[in-house]
């Protein structure tokens, strides 16, 4: 019996059998992932060496000076992206609980965690260096987020974890990329940091997308049901963060991340997984397929409605000293 069969806590016996069957795919995807990456470290992006050159020190001062021009809307995005990355302990635990601790799945979890851990470090190094926040206020939110725990309503279904991570990794990549692009108009180092993180998220997305594709091929009807439940109730990680709704609304209004971006992500995945053309489904599978294919149009309507109803609104956050933001 595979280690995942004996150590996995969640999933029905049939689902655990599917996870065992997919172990060769997981090994293959791990090797593809390693072959396609260029490993980097936070110090490559924001140097903190004792013996740094004078030019490096001077460049950091120039970076700090330029970063003062970053608008507060973009600072909110940087703060939310950082807080989201620092929720890593929640996700390492969830993957370990849902997929087990002694299998290729755990090998991936450890590799993924090691890579993801650099993201919060790199963003925090940059943010501390450029000094664009009340760091104490930001750190209190980070502490509260970890202390609050994170227990998504996945009903012990490992398929939902892999559907969620497929959506979430791409969503995080989009948020980092869009934030970095705007940040780069004022200060290029921030864009460089976020570009490295975004590229990692894209590779992680490829792994989870391939893993869920494997599940779809073996246990199609149940996988469709799991995907539907996740896709219709998707929320970005970090919704337990104090002020998350207001921060997310700033990102939506700034066109960094919101329903419209999520719609495009879902459309991309539905096409990749060939959901519309799946055949041989039972009644539940066909119902889920139909609802999934209608979901992008529903999201588009919701985005249109939100845009039509949007009027200028004020926001204030302690981590930017409660300065008023009108957007």
Can you describe what's shown?
This protein has 327 residues and is an all-alpha fold. It has one domain: Orthogonal Bundle (Ribonucleotide Reductase, subunit A), CATH 1.10.620.20. It is 72% helix and 1% strand. It is built from 15 helices and two strands. The protein has a two-stranded antiparallel sheet. Helix 3 packs antiparallel against helix 11, helix 10 packs antiparallel against helix 11 and helix 10 packs across helix 12. The chain is globular, with a radius of gyration of 21 Å.
Topology:
Elements: H1 3-7, H2 13-21, H3 23-36, H4 42-45, H5 54-67, H6 72-85, H7 88-99, H8 104-130, H9 135-148, H10 158-183, H11 188-218, H12 220-232, H13 244-253, H14 259-272, H15 283-309, E1 314-315, E2 325-326
Antiparallel strand pairs: 1-2
